[in-house]
Amino acid sequence: GAGVSQSPSNKVTEKGKDVELRCDPISGHTALYWYRQSLGQGLEFLIYFQGNSAPDKSGLPSDRFSAERTGGSVSTLTIQRTQQEDSAVYLCASSPIMTDPGELFFGEGSRLTVL
Amino acid sequence: GEDVEQSLFLSVREGDSSVINCTYTDSSSTYLYWYKQEPGAGLQLLTYIFSNMDMKQDQRLTVLLNKKDKHLSLRIADTQTGDSAIYFCAESITGTYKYIFGTGTRLKVLA
């Protein structure tokens, strides 16, 4: 399909393990966002990419979180030494830059459960 | 600061109108949006309004914007069971890449 693809859709891991979440944006979309959705917390901004660079990493909750984007396309969000409070749905969105009205196109998310 | 607030839950009967409210704090937003999230799915843009407009109507949806009070609402006429979902209010901040989302309102439509 032509939409934003995220994998895995579900991940159960043990506390202390590392996890990688992948996002494949819509082809040609230069902007890519990661959000975290926790119960009752809405969407929490994590990081924004413009091409391969991340001008704003201010939303990353701790230094256990990192993200990269290669080839202006696929992005990986890595969480090291996972904690139970990391359990959430991680949503990726992409957008063609500088268009009105600036719609974000979301993937279905990766649900992370840390036991 | 930037903050978007919504009530968490709304329950209506099928056929009634639903009104979902949102307040925001950043007066420099360019567009305000309503996104819909169905169970197990990502968010999809439902409708949007440019910040210099007061109202926008799109079939069963009516968006009202009160810039003075920084209040946005979404009215769904003749609400159907398929409208059951979480609705997120969001704003884009002029001149930036930033999109600020609210907490989401879970709409439950009772048959």
List keywords for this structure.
heterodimer, A: mainly beta, seven-stranded mixed sheet, globular, B: 111 residues, mainly beta, six-stranded mixed sheet, five-stranded antiparallel sheet, 11 strands
Description of the structure:
The complex is a heterodimer of chains A (115) and B (111). Chain A contains no helices and 11 strands. The model of chain A has no long low-confidence stretch (mean pLDDT 92). In chain A, the strands form 2 sheets. In chain A, strands 2, 4, 5, 6, 9, 10 and 11 form a 7-stranded mixed β-sheet that branches. A 4-stranded antiparallel β-sheet of chain A has the order 1-3-8-7, with no helix packed on it. With 115 residues, chain A is an all-beta fold. With 111 residues, chain B is an all-beta fold. In chain B, strands 2, 4, 5, 9, 10 and 11 form a 6-stranded mixed β-sheet that branches. The N and C termini of chain B lie far apart (40 Å). The chains are: A mainly beta (115), B mainly beta (111). At the A-B interface, strand 4 and strand 5 of A face strand 4, strand 5 and strand 10 of B.
